[in-house]
Structures are given as structure tokens and as C-alpha cells.
Amino acid sequence: MKKQNIGTCKFCGQEKELIRAHIIPRHFYLNYENETFAAINTKTGNWKQCKTGTYDKNILCAECDNNILGEFDYEAYRILLKDIYNFAEYKYNQNILYHLTEKDFDYTLFRNFFISVLWRASISKTEEFSNINLGPYEDIALNIMQNKIDNDTNFKVLIFKYPKGLENNDIVYLSKIKAKHATYCLSMAGYFILVFINEKNIPLDYIKYYGGFFLNKENLYILESPYFYKKHFQHIYDLKDSSKKLISYLQKKYDKLGHI
Ligand SMILES: [Zn+2]
């Protein structure tokens, strides 16, 4: 008989059989069907070829993983890997702005996806995510995902995208980019996603250039540019010199929006 793995599910808090829960869902590893991809240990900088994506068998029960977190995962998958291409609003050379409005996406599910990836990484004891620790925000994340609090000032999400088909688009990592300001960068499936844990910590340059493009209830913006790809590990706001046309379009739009 298969040995049972009973423990406390970190989401529902019940004693249950725990399953192999992926920290970043398998579908966001672009080559997951071929069962190889590159994963980076952000602590050591080492690369490794993985077969199934990092999972933790001590954090979640099947019901929570499949039914609750699974719904967040599906909404993110639907938008980021499928429907996004129907929503190009502006194009200049290879720069594209995608824009979905509230009827096109479920804000709560979509936002919860990013919160859940950080939360999973934070509660996990696996080596790959050992430098991800939300501290007091771990409980806030859980409460938001369980719909117990309505909190819009934490977990501000900004989404950048690389053009399709670039060779490093299958790199998957999650790292802390500013130790002091607790900002996380999630790279997966050709996306580069910044999550600012607290809106107070968003640098002024980000607010100036990208303030209108943070995920909010009414709008989901995704900025695509080959330049983001080149700047992979540098500050996003260095982009301003070379994507001027896109940025000026964004700024005009942002002037109209005038808020995060
Ligand atoms: Zn559970």
C-alpha cells in the first residue's frame, strides 16, 4: 500500500494527506511537455535541468491545490499563455501594449495567482525558494486568497513580456530583487513580472513611467518589448531611452489615468 503523507495543509489548516504541490505551476514551464527546462537557484545562481518543476510535498492538500489555487493558476494560464494575443491595443515595431478590461479577466483570480506563487514559495522549505520569505505578509497573502480581507495596497503587480519564441523564454525563476524593499521578480513563460509587496515601496521612477500599468480591478496591461529581454537583469526603468516611442505612448495614457 502506498505510504500516506499526512500533515497540516497550510491553506485550509486541516490534517490531511498532502500532495506534491508545484510552487510555480507546471504549465508555465514552456517545455514542460518535453520534461526539461532550466531552473535557476536564485540563491546560488546555479542552473539545473529539471524534470517536473519544483514541488513541495508538505504544504498543500489535493482539494486546496486543485480547486482553489488551481483556479488562480487556470486564470493566469488562460490569459498569459492563450488569450493575451487577442488584446493588442498598440504596436510599434516589436513593442506591443496589451490591454484587457474588467470584462476580459477576473481580477481576483488573476491577482491571487501572483500572490499564491509568492505564498507557496514562502511557505515552502525547498532549497530553490529558500530566499523567498514574506514574513508578516505571509498571513496577509493567505487572508487575501481566502477572501477574508480586501487589500489593494499590498502585492502590486506589474507585468512585462518578451516577444514570443526567444530562446530564454523558458527560464523560470523567482527572486527577491531588492532586499530592503521586498520586491519580487517572477520570470516564467516569457514574462517578467514584478510584485511589490507594499505600494509604499514602489520606486518613484516606476510610478513615473509605469504608474498607470499596475494591475488593477478595471485594467490589465502587459508591456511587450524585445528590449525588456535584453535588460533581463537590470532595472526596468533603464528602458526609457531605448523604447521612447512606446514609453511616450504609455505616458500620454498614464497622464489620462493619473493613478496606480
Ligand atoms: Zn487544504
Tell me briefly what this model is.
This protein is of the alpha+beta class. The chain has helices spanning 62-82, 107-123, 137-145, 204-210, 226-230, 244-257; strands spanning 6-8, 15-17, 21-22, 37-40, 47-50, 55-56, 88-92, 95-101, 154-161, 173-178, 183-188, 191-198, 219-224. It has one domain (6-257).
Arithmetic mean of pLDDT: 82
Bound molecules: zinc ion
Helix vs. strand class: alpha+beta
Give the strand tally: 13
Point out poorly predicted stretches: 233-244, 256-260
- Strand order, main sheet: write it out: 7-8-13-9-12-11-10
The dominant shape is globular
Query: Which percent band covers the strand fraction?
Result: 15-25%
Summarize the structure in words:
By secondary structure, the protein is α+β, with helices and mostly antiparallel strands. It has one domain (6-257). 28% of the residues lie in helices and 25% in strands. It contains six helices and 13 strands. It has helices at residues 62-82, 107-123, 137-145, 204-210, 226-230, 244-257; strands at residues 6-8, 15-17, 21-22, 37-40, 47-50, 55-56, 88-92, 95-101, 154-161, 173-178, 183-188, 191-198, 219-224. The strands form four sheets. The protein has a seven-stranded mixed sheet with strand order 7-8-13-9-12-11-10. Helix 1 (62-82) crosses helix 2 and helix 2 runs antiparallel to helix 3. It is globular, with a radius of gyration of 18 Å.
